[in-house]
Amino acid sequence: MSQAKKLRKAVFPVAGLGTRFLPATKAVPKEMLTVVDKPVIQYVVDEAAEAGIEHFVFITGRGKAVIEDYFDIQFELEQTLKARNKNAELSLLSGLLPIAGSASFTRQQEPQGLGHAVWCARDIVGEEPFALLLPDMIMNGEKGCLKGMVELFETHGGNIVGVEECAPELAHQYGIVGVGEALDGGFRITQMIEKPAKGTAPSNYFINGRYILQPEIFKILETQARGAGNEIQLTDGMLKLADSQSFAAYPFDGQTFDCGAKDGFILANVFFAMQREDIRPQIEEPLKALLAALK
Ligand code: UTP
User: Fold this and answer.
1) In this predicted model, what pLDDT tens digit does every residue of 146-194 receive, in sequence order?
2) Are 154 and 129 within 8 A, CB to CB?
3) Which of 4, 145, 230, 281 would suit a FRET pair with 19, their CA atoms being 20 to 30 Å apart?
4) Residue ranges in 176-233 assigned as alpha helix (H)
5) Residue 202 zone, left/alpha/beta (φ > 0; ψ -120 to 50; rest)
6) Architecture of domain 9-294
């Protein structure tokens, strides 16, 4: 096992079809939909950078080239901003750019499932542990979810998943973990079940779209049979990995929004706008008035 290795790389699978967000995702990848004034993917990349990630690996697919362009300079725009002395806008753009050589892009030609998307990162990640962030889940907390997971990883090694508590009646919609021995900042996982039948979930802790995985997952995914939805499922691969390696959970304390779904995306926009000093004063009262008028 490669537990002693430092966590340097993060994988962002962005090759999905985004069918829950049609028709918008016919032309725009869901990762590029904006929450306030930044694309969803920027929030997730920021979370990874806060956790100390040095290399950002994007698994893209057909129609996703705009994501690659977003992480590049925009020459004409920047020249125009310079000519107009728009220095604040210029430094905003340059501050968001990954340093040269720190972003890699590879293609998943067909969306064959999350497990298959992760497998596409095998050569770029190599023989070291890596973070995996599902880019449609965006989070807000005093400490970023991945940062907290990295702290747990640095003490305990192995594989780590981010978890949050859901209402018991919703547990059947999620990947749920069983709670074992308490650790400083988390707990050991006794089992993982994808979408347990109603009333059978071993806990209310669901996997929230953040993972730290050991590279042995790639060998497993290479031969992983198709599972639910006829897709190569990451959970099936993790279950096999759990036969030989430890898994721990990091309970994230904060707000999470599923921006791959319309309700989560709309709530995220309201929430992050209300966090902004330059926006909240303009929207707070109108928002209340709108809600009151809807009653
Ligand atoms: P989702 O199931 O949430 O994404 O996968 P999706 O398939 O795009 O969405 P819907 O259900 O059709 O609306 C979780 C993440 O895994 C990526 C997706 O882009 C998303 O970020 N993914 C999924 C891939 O990169 N490749 C796949 O084959 C499947």
Assistant:
1) 999 999 999 999 999 999 999 999 999 999 999 999 999 999 999 999 8
2) no
3) 145
4) 216-222
5) alpha
6) Alpha-Beta Complex (3.90)
Domain boundaries defined on the chain:
9-294
Residue 22 near ligand 1, beta carbon < 6 Å:
no
| Nearest-angstrom CA–CA distance, 263 and 122 | 34
* This model's pTM is above 0.90: yes
∠ Cα 181 186 46 (to 5°): 160
Ligand 1 centroid distance, CA of 135 (Å): 9
Using CA atoms of 226, 124, 258, 252 in order, give the dihedral in degrees to the nearest 10: 110
The residue to mutate among 11, 12, 17, having the most atoms of ligand 1 within 8 angstroms of its beta carbon, is 17
Question: Amino acid letter at 245?
Answer: Q
Q: Helix or strand or coil: residue 61?
A: coil
User: Cα of 152 to ligand 1 centre, how many Å?
Assistant: 27
Residue with tokens 């709108």: 290
To test the pocket of ligand 1, the residue of 64, 136, 138, 232 to mutate (highest count of ligand atoms within 8 Å of its CB) is: 136
Placement of tokens 């930044």 in the chain: 38
pLDDT digits (tens, 9 = 90+) for 230-283: 899 999 999 999 999 999 999 999 999 999 999 999 999 999 999 999 999 999
Spatial contact of 290 and 266, defined as CB atoms under 8 Å apart: no
CA-wise closest residue to 95 among 12, 144, 32, 38 = 38
Lowest mean pLDDT among 51-55, 91-95, 134-138, 247-251: 91-95
Q: Give the whole-angstrom CA distance, residue 273 versus residue 247.
A: 36
